[in-house]
Amino acid sequence: MLESGGVKPNEVTFIQNGGVGESLAALMGGRVDVCMIGYPYGLRAKNAGFQLLFRPSQTEYGLFPTAAIAARDSWLKDARNRKVAVDFLRALGEGTMLARENAVVTKKALRKFTRVNDDADLQGSFEFYKDAFPRTLRVEEKAMANAQKFVDHPKAKGADVRQFFDNSLVEEAMK
Q1: What is the pTM of this model?
Q2: Average pLDDT in the 5-27 region?
Q3: Measured distance CA(88)–CA(95) in Å, rounded
Q4: What's the chain's average pLDDT?
Q5: Is residue 41 a contact partner of residue 24, using CB atoms and an 8 Å limit?
Q6: Contact 63, 43 (CB under 8 A)
Q7: b/e per residue, 36-57, with b = 16+ CB within 10 A?
Q8: Which of 93, 95, 117, 172 is deepest in the core (most CB within 10 A)?
């Protein structure tokens, strides 16, 4: 994140504030100049006059695989297990689409699981995070290439990233 803004890690001091609420309090109290926070705290910081500086989903930096779902090849060879995997991926895809596109349902879930009742906070959270949900469950080669840059293993640098993912189950789930 620092690199995307032209800042070197040795030019800043990192402070562990606790959770996002504590980070917002440190920012609002002037104890830090910048902090990492998500919504609804980001909306509260914005309303207090602070600027959003970095959004991973809108940068090359943000193009990373954010979750891994894995299964043994031997397990997938059984047709029943393969069906379970495909059904799971189909449900996951539908759930991410719902979270990205349906504000009413998403805010209802946010209200329940975050215990936040302020509609402006919930709407702000929906708006902020909807673009973070991928439009597809397919692993993008570029995302794997970005992640590969941070793997500290001599064989990783020259490896073909396409060997590290398989979109065939995702394709099957999308049919």
Answers
A1: 0.69
A2: 88
A3: 10
A4: 87
A5: yes
A6: no
A7: ebebbbbbbbeeeebeeeeeee
A8: 93
